[in-house]
Amino acid sequence: MKEKKEFNEKRRLALKKIGATVGALAISPIVLSQENGVNKKRKPLLKVAHITDIHISHENDAPNRFKKCLAEIKKHKVDFFLNGGDTIMAADYNNITRESVINQWRIWEKLRSEFDEYKIYSCLGNHDMWWAAPDKNDAMYGKNYVIEKLGMPKRYYSFKKEDWYFIVLDSNNKNAGALDDEQRVWLEKELTDMPKGASVLVMTHYPILGVSTIPYGGSHTDSKYITKLFYKHQDKHIHCISGHMHLLDNAVYNHVNYYCNGSMSGFWWGEGDQDSAEKCWYHETPPGYTIIELFDDGSMKNTYYPHSY
Ligand SMILES: [Zn+2]
Predict the structure, then answer these.
(1) Which residues 6+ apart lie within 8 Å of 139 measured at CB?
(2) Are the CB atoms for 128 and 141 separated by under 8 Å?
């Protein structure tokens, strides 16, 4: 405990020296991508904000704190947002009422209007769906309601911006996180239809492959299938981003980069527990958001910005 205090004090003083914001949680941005040996002549094509695991509810003043994060993200002048899922606190537990689900999405819709000048491409998180609806024909049951609330075209989809292909997957299937057969067929075709050398960014909620998933679980259970599929497409530049863990990590396998980009909510906007390295952190990961820069040579820079709200 004492050592940690001393460390924090040293860090505070170091931050003061460089003129950074002094606060218990002020930490420099963390660059996860390998920047050694990058092509110095690469041209930036897009700048994107990746926010994930927002877990919005009225508790802990989360809406106002999220608004402050948004103001900070806007300063990065991003082209659009990617939302990695678990947008609301939780609709998936058995005891969640209709009223609670409506309320949670209402908060999100209100917050969404704070940055509706930006396009947002969302992904389904495991906590977003209300499975406890009285029956499967209920308009609020399951994925379709969430798809509508998040303005998604479908539970999985793709789009193209500049020279980059974006693929958003739905990991919420049997043996989650996993793709269902229908989605496998679709993904295989998407990749096959892309030209040689294509630049691809894949977003999932659960990490396809991770590091923090080794001690804590939570990985895609079909990583073998997906990594083998990506290996067949070595002629392309494939990068993957995820959330779910609330932990920050980076794995590289067969030249594909997998970034698990922490979470907006840290310890679900709460103060944390005995495992939190700092207030509001989940284990050793501070709450934050990611700024992704995409280049013309198929490379990307992934920078995690811890926030102190
Ligand atoms: Zn989450």
Answers:
(1) 145
(2) no
- Enter the pTM of the model: 0.91
Instruction: Tell me which amino acid residue 53 is.
Output: D
Tell me the domain boundaries of the chain: 1-29, 32-306
Q: How far is the CA of 263 from the centre of ligand 1 (A)?
A: 7
pLDDT digits (tens, 9 = 90+) for 54-90: 999 999 999 999 999 999 999 999 999 999 999 999 9
For ligand 1, a single-atom ion, the residues with CB < 5 A are 53, 86
| Per-residue model confidence (pLDDT) at position 37 | 85
Q: Which CATH architecture has domain 32-306?
A: 4-Layer Sandwich (3.60)
How many angstroms is it from 245 CA to the middle of ligand 1? 7
Angle between helices 98-112 and 142-149 (to 10 degrees): 20
The pLDDT of residue 26:
67
Residue 243 Cα to ligand 1 midpoint, Å, equals 7
Asked if residue 3 has pLDDT above 50, the reply is no
> Shortest CA distance to 146 belongs to which of 129, 158, 134, 132?
129
* Separation in Å, CA 129 to CA 57, 145, 244: 15, 8, 14
Q: How far is the CA of 193 from the centre of ligand 1 (A)?
A: 33
CA of 84 to the centre of ligand 1 (A): 9
